[in-house]
Design goal:
The protein has seven helices and nine strands, in the order E-E-E-H-E-E-H-H-H-E-H-E-H-E-E-H. By secondary structure, the chain is an alpha/beta fold. The strands form two sheets. Strands 5-6-7-3-8-9 form a six-stranded mixed beta sheet, sandwiched between helices. Strands 2-1-4 form a three-stranded antiparallel beta sheet. Helix 5 links the parallel strand 6 and strand 7. It is globular, with a radius of gyration of 19 Å.
C-alpha cells in the first residue's frame, strides 16, 4: 500500500441477519465514496446509521455483503496482513491492557509488526513525551485518568507511523474540556504526519472542529451530504451547522448544502 493511496468505497453493501428473528438488517446500502490521501474526514450521523459498521469494514473485521473497499488496490478484509502497521485505530474506550504499563501498551503494536526492541522502547517513549506522559510511562491504566488513558491510546496509534488513522467516537466518553484538547492534539499530529484520518462521530460540533470534509449519513449509510468545510467562510459556519443539523433531523439533504 502506498502512502498516496486513496480510500475507494464502491457500491458497498453490508447486511446482517438477526439470529433471533431471522430478519435481515441493511447496515450499509450501496455506499460509494472516495477519500483522498491526507484528508481529514468526519463522518456524522445518528445512532444506528452504519458508521461503526463502515469502521469495522475499514479495519478488516467484517466482509461486505457486496461492493468493495479498495486502498492501494488491496482490501482490508481480504488482505489483512498487508495493512499491519499501515492502519491505526483509536476507539471510544482506550482498550489498554490493564496488566501492561503505559509504555508497554504503546509498544504493543510495534511488537506485533516485528520492530526491534530498542526501537520499540525509543519510539514509545518519544510518543509518551509528545503527549505529556513521560512521567507516567511505568504507570498502569488503573493509575491514570480517563484523559490520560486516551492519550496513551493516541500514542499507541501514532507509534506505528500509520498512513491511515481511524477514530470511532474516540473522545465522546470524556469531559468536553479534555475532549477538546485531545481533538486538537489528534488533528495536529495527523496533519504533521500527513495521515489520512477518518473520525466517526454522532456529535456535529466535533465533526465541524475536526474535518476538512464532513460526510453526513442517513439510515443504512445513505450519503445525505458531503461538505468541504473550506468552501464555507467562518462567518457562515452557523448556516452550515444549521443545514447539517436539519439534514440529520429530516434524514434528507438541506438545500443550503447545495453550495458545496
Amino acid at each position: 500500500m502506498s502512502a498516496s493511496a486513496a480510500i475507494e468505497i464502491a457500491q458497498l453493501r453490508k447486511v446482517f441477519r438477526q439470529t433471533t428473528s431471522g430478519q435481515s438488517v441493511v447496515a450499509i446500502n450501496e455506499l460509494t465514496l472516495r477519500i483522498e490521501p491526507g484528508e481529514m474526514v468526519a463522518i456524522v450521523g445518528q445512532t444506528g446509521c452504519g458508521k461503526s459498521t463502515l469502521f469495522d469494514l475499514l479495519i478488516g473485521l467484517e466482509h461486505p455483503t457486496s461492493g468493495r473497499i479498495s486502498i492501494g488496490g488491496k482490501t482490508p478484509y481480504d488482505d489483512f496482513n498487508a495493512f499491519r502497521g499501515k492502519i491505526a485505530t483509536i476507539f471510544q474506550q482506550d482498550r489498554l491492557f490493564p496488566w501492561r504499563s503505559a509504555l508497554d501498551n504503546v509498544k504493543l503494536p510495534l511488537e506485533l509488526i516485528g520492530i526491534a526492541e530498542d526501537v520499540q522502547h525509543t519510539r514509545a517513549m518519544d510518543w509518551l513525551k509528545r503527549l505529556g506522559l513521560e512521567k507516567f510511562a511505568n504507570a498502569y491504566p488503573r493509575e491514570l485518568s480517563g484523559g490520560m488513558r486516551q492519550r496513551v491510546a493516541i500514542a499507541r496509534a501514532f507509534a506505528v507511523q500509520p498512513e491511515i488513522l481511524l477514530a470511532d467516537e474516540s473522545f465522546s466518553a470524556l469531559d468536553e474540556v479534555t475532549a477538546g484538547e485531545l481533538r486538537k492534539t489528534f488533528v495536529a499530529l495527523a496533519r504533521e504526519f500527513n495521515s489520512t484520518a477518518i473520525l466517526i462521530t454522532h456529535q456535529l460540533e466535533e465533526a465541524m472542529s475536526v474535518g476538512d470534509r464532513i460526510i453526513v449519513f442517513g439510515k443504512s449509510a445513505a450519503l445525505l451530504a458531503d461538505v468541504r468545510v473550506a468552501d464555507w467562510a467562518p462567518a457562515d459556519y452557523p448556516v452550515l451547522r444549521a443545514a447539517i443539523q436539519n439534514t440529520l433531523q429530516a434524514n434528507a439533504p438541506d438545500a443550503r448544502l447545495a453550495r458545496t
